[in-house]
Amino acid sequence: MMVFTTFIEDAxxxxxxxxxxxxxxxxxxxxxxxxxxxxxxKWLLALESCVAFITDQFHELIxxxxxxxxxxxxxxxxxxxxxxxxxxxxxxxxxxxxxxxxVQRLNIDERKEDHGSNQNCDDIEINFDPVHSIxxxxxxxxxxxxxxxxxxxxxxxxxxxxxxxxxxxxxxxxLRAMVYVPAIRSGGxxxxxxxxxxxxxxxxxxxxxxxxxxxxEDADCDDGVPDMQFAMDGDKGDGDQPEExxxxxxxxxLDNMLLLLYHYLREVCxxxxxxxDIFESLLQIFDRSILPTHRLKYTxxxxxxxxxxxxxxxxxxxxxxxxxxxxSAEPILRRQACAxxxxxxxxxxxxxxxxxxxxxxxxxASQALVYVDLMEPSQQFPDAEVxxxxxxxxxxxxxxxxxxxxxxxxxxxxxxxxTLLQLHRIVHCPLKxxxxxLDSVVREFATVADQLGVEGYAExxxxxxxxxxxxxxxxxxxxxxxxxxxxxxxLLRYSHMFITNLYxxxxxxxxxxxxxxxxxxxxxxxxxxIPSSPHSLLDGxxxxxxxxxxxxxxxxxxxxxxxxxxxxxxxxxxxxxxxYG
Length: 581
Fold this sequence. Notes:
about 0% strand
């Protein structure tokens, strides 16, 4: 060993004087002996003794060392770890390069190259513990390297077109790093959500045409679920697959990644203060990435789920949405989206208290009434573009009341609620909101209007039916509002288990206009017991690529959704059934 050490010291000194022959021999020796773990280990032990001399000018040597296949032997892995820790302790300038190289080892596509390009990386058994161990120690020695770690994790995130297994394994490794390096948690979540959004928007869903009488004969469906038709932008996907198969792959990626993220959130949000901190970070991410993105299908359920993990978070979510809804500086489309989120959240969240729901509905109603009261006389005419925010707020109120009628209209005080919300003023205002709202919501609300004391609702419906509007609005656009319900049914195959017990399905209470209903007997309660991952994510140092695979590889059935249980006929918009697996 002394011979190796002496040779290295001399080679480094000669390199500084311009003689690179021994230095180049050293680099060549490390590269050529890579398959022989014992030889490489000797070089690493000797290099550790000379670490004080390995400054940033010897970048070729550092590159050769970082390229070593150190995971082939336990003893070699220990020597490699000890050398890197000694290196960054002596020269913190190397930490960024070390961390970046280690992060690349967390991508199984990189490992595929190491194991031969013809081998399927799904078949490669990989233990990521040694990589995470070194990263954790390097960041402990050089805390500033946490920023480099975050940047490296973001930059090496697999492209959305990479296969499901690649995405799944890398995300699991990223979440694991976020456990033992909490400083990167907020930025890591932001990067993950951005990637989920990229995948989510690739899935295009053709809305189901509304029909007054829904039956299985009217659509191609299994278990009462309309078979949605998908379309994808772009010509290239995961291999030369049919377009429909590409869409299924994107849905599967989103499902697997959301499952991992829900597991992570459940573990790290066990402490109330931690849950609050994470939720505040998610609210910022929501504003930046989720809220501005048109018609996301599932990514927004991250907020839906996290809000259930601690007391007060559901109310905090509503408060945040109302703050943006009331902010006139916000773009009108963003305020409109906030109104849609509020209505959909009240309707679908099953753990909101009655007082919380009434307070939120009252706040929505007050916004609608303020809009009417402040309206200029010249603007008092029905027009979808001119009054789009008002109509969206009205839609949110009626939609939520349809879903929560059993809770809000089941007492003797239901007429007081109608008076409190001043629904009569809203329904009969000059802007004719019933003309612009989703027809099924308007008709469904007819069963609730009498209970709430909304007088003249039937007459208003008839009057609106006779009302003829221009096909173009005053601004030249189509004279209709675009409908959006952010928390429509969640039908992803695996990750729905985290949502089921928090989510209110549509329940049909013998609506007179409903003439046919699909059988609801097959609907199960898969989410009644959410399985824990085999290894706790809190450990942060014991989770490898197999730790959540058992959960993902179970043959979990797709939750049966019938027309009667998921949505009434008019609520059939934007139902998706993933066909992967």
